[in-house]
Amino acid sequence: MNDAGKVTLYYAPRSRSTGTLTLLEEMGVPYDLKVLNLRAGDQRQPAFLSINPMGKVPTLVHQGQVVTEQVAIYIYLSDLFPDAKLSVPAGDPLRGSFLRWMTFYAACMEPACTDKSMKRETPPRSQSGYGDYDTVIGAVKAQLEKGPYFLGDRMTAADILWGTALSWLTLWDLVPKLPAIVSYAERITTRPIVARVRERDAALAAEHEKAVAAKSAAQ
User: Is pTM, for the whole model, over 0.85?
Assistant: First the structure.
């Protein structure tokens, strides 16, 4: 592993930061974990807002610099630790595809699924950055039918991002349970490290719920 040193991840269970923690564990790199209790409002406290004024997790700090936004963090980490082989370096023919599918998640998948969840009418295509929901799902389905991972036979950080997300999105019926999508999500989420992080995540979430309940009962 290189000499990039430790990164610090601000994390909360049952949030998008679970995927980032999974990525760090998959890469086997050193990190410090700062756990926030979202139920208790830790993300709105001045100490955290001074780091990320948006009050969101995941938030990464490395060598004094703050990196926010889930996809940026995945790209940053996978590039920072190339020995983990979960990035695609500049000059590799697949670099463009790697960046495409990483950013497609934030630019197209999340807004499309948010609109579906909120039962909002899709705006005209000329005003919609992601086009329309069915086209987004069709693009993802077509890509996953080409191979076991987003880049074919090559697993990358994109698969940690998409695999963990699709497992939840299909569970919430925000993405159809198409064979290619379901089998892909299972392929990623049944990895031993993913399962261990989920168990840890659930345990922390339970602790946070108890802490909030105890505080409420004491008031």
Answer: yes
3 part of a folded domain: no
Residue 146 lies in a domain: yes
In the numeric block, the tokens 């049952």 are attached to 14
Closest CA to 164 of 137, 142, 191, 143: 191
Tokens, residue 106: 């934030």
| Secondary structure (DSSP) of the chain | --S---EEEEE-SSSTHHHHHHHHHHHT--EEEEE--GGGTGGGSHHHHTT-TT--S-EEEETTEEEESHHHHHHHHHHH-GGG--S--TTSTTHHHHHHHHHHIIIIIHHHHHHHHTTPPPPPGGG-TT--HHHHHHHHHHHHTTSSBTBBTB--HHHHHHHHHHHHHHHTTSS---HHHHHHHHHHHTSHHHHHHHHHHHHHHHHHHHHHHHHHHH-
Q: Is the dihedral of CA 108, 20, 159, 204 positive or negative?
A: negative
Quick check: is 57 in a domain? Answer: no
The arithmetic mean of pLDDT across residues 9-24, rounded, is 97
Is there a domain that residue 156 lies in? yes
For the stretch 45-61, pLDDT in tens is: 999 999 999 999 999 99
Q: Considering its fold, how many domains does the chain have in total? A: 1
Would you give the distance in Å from CA 56 to the centre of its chain? 13
CATH number at residue 183: 1.20.1050.10
Identify the domain containing residue 135 by its residue range: 95-192
